[in-house]
Amino acid sequence: MVNLITVVGAGNVGATTAQRVAEKELARRVVMVDVVEGVPQGKGLDQWQSAPIEGFDSRIIGANGYDETAGSDIVIITAGIARKPGMSRDDLLNTNAGIVKQVSEQIARTSPNAIIIVVSNPLDVMCYVAKKVTGFPRERVIGMAGVLDTARYRAFLAEALDVSVRDIQAMVLGGHGDTMVPLISYTTVSGIPVTQLLDRKTLDEIVDRTRNGGAEIVKYLKTGSAYYAPSSGAVQMAEAIVFDQKRVLPCAAWLQGEYGMSDIFLGVPVKLGRGGVEKVLEVELTPKERVDLGKSAEAVREPISKLTI
Ligand code: APR
């Protein structure tokens, strides 16, 4: 357990994340920060009152400022506006960039040693903003996307195969958008290559559904975007850090030459432990996967050039 985890944004993703963090007792204190007066305080109080029933002792509170968050070990940024039907993640670009910039300034000031997990979209660009504004080293600014995209991919595969989700090992790399790269070549069912169990057409359909996994939910919800699986993803990363688990998870990391790319956040396999990103793992890719990863990187660089902050 660490001393303090802050969740910025007390909306759907933020509040669900804070509740999961508390239920897992990842920190002694959990602070949820939001700009809307009363909402983080009210949700925090409600969550704290679930503690005797759920049986956790993490003290959870809400706040509108950063005084209560000072000295956070981990800060999870979920602040921003969510996607509405028909909106791409890039449509959120400058609104959320302004929000993440303001949040990052506050974190750098009050929690200079924190590890930041970014969830706000467009994810890879928001990671860039957080890193640029805080000046934190790459070990301490990480984006949550690959874990979510991989969870969606694994869920769809488990459904198609009628097997336990636990037995699907997979990895989705690249940017968190339509260009993400699910690695069929590294997808196994308890070690059995998935290509031996599903035909190409079914696999391609699952890859396609994974790429549109977020949009499928936005279409149903109409007024917001996914939050149960995104919060699970962020909490899995926080857990790996808190307990120094050395988990190998696909996360958005600042590349410095890996995969032939530099100065860009992109989803790649990383080792997550108490130091944050302790290693970026470079795995062999098929020529097509390499080309697809390059295209995904282009799709991440393009909106960065449109940033007005
Ligand atoms: N500081 C703190 N909180 C802020 C700020 C800010 N500067 N600006 C906005 N917020 C808060 C809003 O008040 C709101 O409570 O962020 C919260 C966002 O919550 P929702 O609208 O419910 O959105 P949510 O579904 O939680 O998604 C948040 O995560 O997955 C991504 O694409 C999603 O970028 C979006 C983010």
Topology of this protein?
Elements: E1 2-8, H1 12-23, E2 27-33, H2 39-49, H3 51-54, E3 59-63, E4 74-77, H4 93-110, E5 115-118, H5 123-134, E6 141-143, H6 146-161, E7 168-169, E8 172-173, E9 181-182, E10 188-189, E11 192-193, H7 200-211, H8 213-221, H9 228-242, E12 247-256, E13 262-273, E14 276-280, H10 287-305
Parallel strand pairs: 1-2, 1-4, 2-3, 4-5, 5-6
Antiparallel strand pairs: 7-10, 8-9, 10-11, 12-13, 13-14
The structure holds adenosine-5-diphosphoribose.
Number of helices: 10
Low-confidence stretches: none
Number of domains: 2
CATH topology tier name of the largest domain: L-2-Hydroxyisocaproate Dehydrogenase, Chain A, domain 2
Which structural category do the helix and sheet elements fall into? alpha/beta
* Distinct small molecules: adenosine-5-diphosphoribose
How many DSSP-defined strands?
Answer: 14
Could you explain how this protein is built, in words?
It is a single chain. The protein is α/β, with parallel strands linked by helices and 309 residues long. The protein has two domains: 2-143, NAD(P)-binding Rossmann-like Domain (Rossmann fold), CATH 3.40.50.720; 146-304, Lactate dehydrogenase/glycoside hydrolase, family 4, C-terminal (L-2-Hydroxyisocaproate Dehydrogenase, Chain A, domain 2, Alpha-Beta Complex). Helices cover 41% and strands 22% of the residues. It contains ten helices and 14 strands. The strands form four sheets. A six-stranded parallel β-sheet has the order 3-2-1-4-5-6, with helices on both faces. A three-stranded antiparallel β-sheet has the order 7-10-11. Strands 12-13-14 form a three-stranded antiparallel β-sheet. Helix 1 crosses helix 9 (228-242), helix 4 runs parallel beside helix 5 (123-134) and helix 6 runs antiparallel to helix 7 (200-211). The chain is globular and about 55 Å long. It starts with a strand and ends with a helix. It binds adenosine-5-diphosphoribose. Residues 8-14, 33-36, 78-83, 92, 96, 99, 102-103, 119-121, 224-225, 227, 230 line the site of adenosine-5-diphosphoribose (APR).
